[in-house]
Design brief:
Elements (H helix, E strand, L loop, with lengths): L18 H11 L4 H7 L11 H11 L3 H7 L30 E4 L2 H6 L7 E4 L5 E2 L4 E2 L11 E2 L4 H17 L1
Antiparallel strand pairs: 1-2, 3-4, 4-5
Helix pairs in contact: 1-2
Length: about 170
C-alpha cells in the first residue's frame, strides 16, 4: 500500500527532470540512501516496470499532485499506453524518453539555483538544445556535470544560432 502522507522533506519539481534524478534528490533531502527510498515507499521497480505504476505512490510521497509530477517528469508520459499523450496540453514539444529521441544531460546550474535546488539535476533534452538562452551557458555536448557549463555571453553568434534553430524547430518541426 502506498504511503498516504508525504515524506518529512519534499523537493521541488524541475521541468523535464529524469525520474532517477528526482528519486535521488528526494532520498537525499530525507537523508536516505537512494536505493532505500523505493523499498520504504513499498514500490518494486525493475527494468520492465512501467513508470506509470510509480506515479501514484511517488506523488503521495513527494507531496505533489499526480498531474504536476506527470508534467514535470517525461517518463510518465508513455506514448505506448496513451496514444493521445503527444497532444495533451503541456506535452507538445517535450523530449520523449519512450521514443529514444531524448538524451540525458545536466540541467543549467543557474536554472536549478533559481528554482531553489542546490543539488545536481539531470534532465531529458533533445540533441539540438545546447545553450541555456536565459543564462547564456553552454549545456550541450561535452558537458558531463553542471560545474563544466561555460558562460558563452561573449559569443553572440552562438546564442543567435541557438535561438534561430529553436524558432525553426517550433515553426517547421
Amino acid at each position: 500500500m502506498p504511503p498516504r502522507q508525504p515524506l518529512p522533506r519534499t523537493v521541488s519539481l524541475f521541468h523535464n527532470e529524469t525520474l532517477d534524478s528526482f528519486l535521488h534528490r528526494l532520498a537525499a533531502a530525507n537523508h536516505l540512501p537512494a536505493e532505500q527510498l523505493l523499498p520504504l515507499l513499498k514500490i518494486r521497480r525493475t527494468k520492465k516496470t512501467p513508470a506509470n505504476t510509480l506515479l501514484e505512490p511517488l506523488a503521495a510521497a513527494a507531496g505533489v499532485r499526480q498531474r504536476a509530477l506527470e508534467l514535470a517528469l517525461p517518463e510518465f508520459l508513455d506514448v505506448d499506453t496513451d496514444s493521445d499523450a503527444i497532444d495533451k496540453p503541456g506535452t507538445i514539444g517535450r523530449p520523449r524518453s519512450a521514443l529514444h529521441t531524448a538524451i540525458q544531460r545536466p540541467a543549467c546550474r543557474r536554472c536549478t539555483h533559481a528554482a531553489g535546488i542546490t543539488m545536481p539535476v539531470t534532465c531529458w533534452t533533445t540533441h539540438d538544445r545546447n545553450v541555456c538562452l536565459r543564462h547564456r551557458l553552454w549545456i550541450g555536448n561535452g558537458i558531463a556535470n553542471a560545474d563544466e557549463q561555460v558562460d558563452i555571453s561573449r559569443l553572440p553568434d552562438t546564442l543567435r544560432a541557438q535561438r534561430h534553430h529553436r524558432n525553426l524547430v517550433a515553426r517547421v518541426g
